[in-house]
Amino acid sequence: MELSTVKDAFDRVTKKQKLSCSKSQEVIDQVGLEIEQTLTKIQSVDDTSFPIDLKSILAELKVKLNAIGLQSQLEGPQKELNSNLSKYLKLLEKVFNPDISKAYRNVDFDHHILNQIIASHLYRQGLFDLGDCLVNEAGEPEASALGSQFLEMYQILEAVRIKNIEPALKWISANREALKQNSTSLELKLHRLQFVEILQKKGRADALVYARTHLAPFASIHLDEIQKLMGSLLWAGKLEKSPYAELLIPAHWDNMTEELTRQFCSLLGQSYQSPLTVAIAAGVEGLPTLLKLANVMAAKKQEWQAMKQLPVPLELGKEFQFHSIFVCPVSREQASEENPPMLMPCLHVLCKQSIMKLSKSSTRSFKCPYCPADASVAQCRQLYF
């Protein structure tokens, strides 16, 4: 309900802004027209032998401009816009708590790790000078090595964006064994993109030569893909009208830069997304719940800072759900190879030992501690993170 109220207020401000701009432009155009007509009149009089009475002409212009009422016409819509904008800002302050410090919990941060996370984020964004400055001032020389690695990645990506695949192929060649473990077909995809470019710009003959040199080694594993590319040779010069038109979609190059980034970060032992970006995005999504909790606890004169566990669920999107470590919600013990996480039919997860204690025997059914659904040990499946 609150969000719909905010949206309605925002729509009103937007409407007033458009009306104000439209009215202002209309008045300005009207003033400009009067000035142009006066200039034309002066020029036409100047072309005759009659003396020019500039004072009377300018006086006439002044009367016309006064009749338009430039100031009053501009002030009216602007005042309405300012009034609606002021009401909108007050509504935002009422609906959204501007003091987010209430949701802050005192946490002892490791400044060394925090500096490295920020430096890594700057390097990921291509802000290498700023990253180097932070590394030098914070005294984190080991983080500079990551900067040089991300610099190499950016150089490769910039080359791919202008459809130069040579730096990317050189990097793949240098890291071929490591990339094999990731089961990626980056090299084939790069050659496919280059093949299509040659077919479009140079023709069938050059594309066939390129295919024999660079695509032939992949024929034994990716025969379907190679056959598809060979079929496109028949449509040289009119590929966009052929059954193979999807090969020309520009998004293929964008997808390639994304996959290169993922693979590059994987070999560096880094996540694809910046940890700082993920942490801030998750914090922003969970902030309304935390603020509401802080207000409720304050009203009850209870302190939530010392709580080991939040009394309310903090729902985040699936993109923020990571399970590299699983702690059983029943036993509070971390999962291990001897006590792995198990998925129950109701889709809740407990550790194996907790399930065995709840069932009391491998054949007896038990109730999930989070919902009334029945389950048995045989129905539970081990999860692998």
TrEMBL record:
Cellular compartment(s): Cytoplasm
Domain (RING-Gid-type): residue spans on this chain: 328-371
GO molecular function ontology, one term from the record: zinc ion binding
Biological processes annotated in GO: proteasome-mediated ubiquitin-dependent protein catabolic process
Domain RING-type residue range list: 328-371
Mapped zinc finger ranges (RING-Gid-type): 328-371
Name of the protein in question: RING-Gid-type domain-containing protein
Domain of life: Eukaryota
InterPro entries, per database record: CRA_dom (IPR013144), CTLH/CRA (IPR024964), CTLH_C (IPR006595), Fyv10_fam (IPR045098), LisH (IPR006594), Rmd5_dRing (IPR037683), ZF_RING_GID (IPR044063), Znf-RING_euk (IPR027370)
GO-annotated cellular components: cytoplasm; GID complex; nucleus
A Pfam family recorded for this sequence: CTLH
Domain CTLH: 149-206
Keywords: Cytoplasm, Metal-binding, Zinc, Zinc-finger
